[in-house]
Amino acid sequence: MTEVVKEPLIDGVSIEIEIERVLVRRTTAYQEVMVADTPAYGRVLFLDGLVQSASSDEALYHENLIHPALVIHGRPRRVLVGGTGEGASLREILRHPTIEQVLSVDLDGEVVDLCRRYLPEWSAGALDDPRVELRVQDFRQTLKSVASDSFDVVVGDLSDPVTEGPSAALWGRDYFTDVARVLADDGLFVLQAGEFDPCDLQMARAVRSTLLGVFAHVHFLHAAVPSFNCIWGFAIAAMRPLDLCPADLEARIAALPRQQLRVYTPISHRAALEIPPYLAAMLERPGEVIVGAAAATGLAGLE
Length: 303
Known about the structure:
Rossmann fold, alpha/beta, 2 domains, disordered C terminus, 303 residues
């Protein structure tokens, strides 16, 4: 009998993903991990039954998470990553020629090890790059331990703030305040901000309202990720105004190894920032502020 993973999307909607072969299935101290081959999306990483990355389209997620933010910054040297996972975000960060140091942190070292074994193409050697320091640690502890003004960019590549999830506490105002402290004056924070649910953008609005309680400037990007079965949101936050499409945008992107990029171009950069007007209007409506404790609403501690 064919195995099927049933994944909920939004209220009243779920999908079924057929599994051809399970490479590994394990329950760690924090979550259930499965790497499996699927006919629809190729090899897929599942955490707690939810798609995290698929070989068919992971570049749509990781390149949009990393490159617009680092290009907007202009000269990132020191980057802090919350959520090492499969190492694909590190792969993209290291494509920027100015990078000198990356500190990458994950609470679940077993997931990182399994990804290194079963998904080596995702990291493409980034986990072993001498510029990268890997830590198995609660990201909140990392933020508390590093000095102020230590990083040009902080990347939040964490799982959604679902009830009882391992990242539920890493979405609230206190967490965002800790992120702001470790950023340089001209630094920026980029994070995955969940699905752009066209009904009400509940998560995106909550993330935006919470970020605006800490950061002076918050902008959203979006990209379609087929294996997520939705449009996905990303947020960029900073204390200083950001030039989202600088005059030398093409030159900044030309400094990247373009032959290695599958998605990111000057056109895709501008398109990711061009939120459809009806969604932009919806996004600007105040959302519930995330305070950081798991709650029955499905988002982490809304108030």
